Structure formats: C-alpha cells, structure tokens
Amino acid sequence: MEARSEIPDVYRYIKAVYSHISLLVSRFSFLASPHYLCLMINLRLAADYLKHRLTSKTRHGVHSPFAYHLVDKVIYDFHAKPDYFTIEELRTELLTDARTINITDLGAGSHVNNNKQKQVRTLAKNALKPARLAQLIHRLAVNANPGNIIELGTCLGITTAYLATAAPDAQVISIEGCPETAAIAEDNLSRLGIKNTGLLVGNFDQVLPGVVEMLPKLDFVFIDGNHRKQATLDYFHWCLPKLSDNSIMIFDDIYWSRGMKEAWEEIKAHPEVTVTIDLFWIGLVFVRKGQAKEDFRIKF
Ligand SMILES: C[S@@+](CC[C@H](N)C(=O)[O-])C[C@H]1O[C@@H](n2cnc3c(N)ncnc32)[C@H](O)[C@@H]1O
C-alpha cells in the first residue's frame, strides 16, 4: 500500500526533472545554429566573442542620443513584425529543399562546408543570416527609410526579402556571383510577391563600381559576402564618396578572420567615419557630420 502511494511522487519528480532539462535545452537551443556551431569549432572566434560579451554594453551604457535611439528602439526591438512570418515560412521550406545546385564561389568560402555542389537545404542552413540577425537588418532598413538599398550577397534571397519588405518604396539592388543560387533567389522573391528588387549576377568587384556610379547617393549598403580584408576595404572605399549623413553601411562577419578584424579596425579609424556600432556578428557604420566620433560595442 505504502509503496504504491510513492509511485505518483516518483513520477512527479521524474516529470519535474524532465521539464527542467527540456527548459535548459530549449534555452540553449540557439547553440545549435550554424553561427554558434562556428564559434565552438573556431577557438579564436570563440575567444573574440567572449571578449565582446565582457566588454560590450547594453542601451544603459550609451549616452549619444543618436546611438541610444538606434540601440533602444531598433536593435533591441524584438517584437515580431508581420513581414517576418512569410519570409521565415520560406526559410523553413528551403531548409528541407533537397535540390542540388552547382556553386560558383567567388568569396572567401565558408567555415562550415566548401563543396562545389550543394543542396539548397545545406546553403539555407549554413549561408543565410539567422532570423534574429536578418530581422535586425530589416528593422535597420525600416528605421533608415532609404530610397535605395545595395546588398552584396543575395544567396537564396532571404535578407533581400527582409530588406525589400522593410522599404517597399526603395529600389533594392542585390548582387550575387553564383548564377544557380541567384536563379533560386529570383524565384523566391517572386513567390513572396516582392517587386522592388533588381538582382544582378556577377562578381561584386566588377558589378559594384557601376552600381555606385549610377546612383546619386547611397542610402543603405549591406555587405554580406567575400569576407576578405582587401575586398571589404575596397567595397567601403568605393561606396564612401556617395554616403550622406543619413546613410548606413553594414558589414557582416567583422570577426570572421584576422583579415576581417583588421578591415573593421581600418574602417572604424577612417576620418570620415563618425559612429560605428559593433554588434559582433555585424558592424554598423555612419558618416554623420557634426557627430562626435565614437565607436560603440553593443551586446546583441
Ligand atoms: C553569406 S551569403 C549571403 C547570405 C544572404 N545575404 C542571406 O543571409 O540571406 C554570401 C553570398 O555572397 C556571394 N559572393 C561571395 N563573394 C562574392 C563575389 N566576390 N561576387 C559575387 N558574389 C559573391 C556568395 O555566392 C554567397 O551566395
């Protein structure tokens, strides 16, 4: 009799332990994303990440009104937006897409998988900005209210879609060097009903100078491909003369390699750059005249 009455207690105990473990697993499930996997297999990157976590600030450590607004109202605005759902539905589909395509890799390759033939689902898993970052880029574009957007690195069109829906009246020019990847991006954008994008297929090095020349000014530039020091600095220097007080340039993977770290330091130190915000995964650059030169490291 006594033994029987203990069974529910044992059961409740096991259930409680199980639910604690599930909660812990779900809390740390972000560690399974390619970004964090990368951190774990790359000790240098992990050390940089740790250093960034220890030295970066939240909104409370930011006194510049311009930067405070950006951190408080844009970077830390984690509320779901209607545009997120359809784009994330498409991502979910791509994550199970078994089509194999030939990859033309004009960039610095990947930390994860450098095969020449890849399944779409592998690309979707390893090459795309995770939702949290892609949605931040969307919010930054909403906040910038740009007339034009340049994206280097379309891949499957996920961030292109986030940019296009953030600024439906903007002209979004996205450049991709791999023709087979670009064809899937084109299809994805049309499936989402997006009409304000122009996809250019070619090497950034050849295509970007013509695009910069064609536009009177650049409002929003997102560099998400070819993570080499010199290429990154070239893209920055080509765009710089067309940036204005309201422009924003975003560099992806500023800690990806020693070369990328050096490129980021050079960009920060450029006399025309007044404000930078280092979010570890990406870096934001502003050339606002009359603004005190300041470099922020913000937790994200
Ligand atoms: C990280 S992926 C872009 C991901 C995409 N922005 C997203 O998150 O949805 C980088 C892309 O840039 C392209 N790329 C890299 N270097 C390039 C170059 N020099 N010229 C043209 N495309 C390049 C690659 O083919 C790849 O598709």
How would you characterize this protein structure?
The structure is a single chain. This protein has 300 residues and is α/β, with parallel strands linked by helices. It folds into two domains: 2-32; 46-297, 3-Layer(aba) Sandwich (Rossmann fold), CATH 3.40.50. The chain is built from twelve helices and ten strands. It has helices at residues 2-27, 34-41, 43-55, 65-75, 82-94, 120-126, 131-144, 158-166, 179-191, 204-214, 229-239, 258-269, and strands at 100-102, 117-119, 148-152, 171-176, 197-201, 218-223, 243-252, 275-278, 282-286, 294-297. Strand 8 and strand 9 form a beta hairpin. Helix 2 (34-41) packs across helix 3, helix 5 (82-94) runs antiparallel to helix 8 (158-166) and helix 11 (229-239) packs parallel to helix 12. The radius of gyration is 21 Å and the shape is globular. The model has no long low-confidence stretch (mean pLDDT 90). It binds S-adenosylmethionine.
Descriptive terms for the model:
alpha/beta; globular; two-stranded antiparallel sheet; single chain; Rossmann fold; 2 domains; 10 strands; 300 residues; binds S-adenosylmethionine; 12 helices
The largest β sheet comes out as: 8 strands, mixed
CATH topology call of the largest domain: Rossmann fold
Q: Name the CATH architecture of the largest domain.
A: 3-Layer(aba) Sandwich
- Summed over residues and divided by their number, the pLDDT gives a mean of 90
CATH homologous superfamily heading of the largest domain: Vaccinia Virus protein VP39
Which range does the strand content fall in? 15-25%
The total of beta strands comes to: 10
> What is the H-and-E element order?
HHHHHEEHHEHEHEHEHEHEEE
Low-confidence stretches: none
CATH class of the largest domain: Alpha Beta
Structural shape: globular
> Which structural class best describes the helix and strand composition?
alpha/beta
How many helical stretches? 12
Cα gyration radius (Å): 21 Å
Number of domains: 2
Range of helix content: 40-55%
Measured between the Cα atoms of the first and last residue, the distance is 56 Å
Strand order of the largest sheet: 5-4-3-6-7-9-8-10
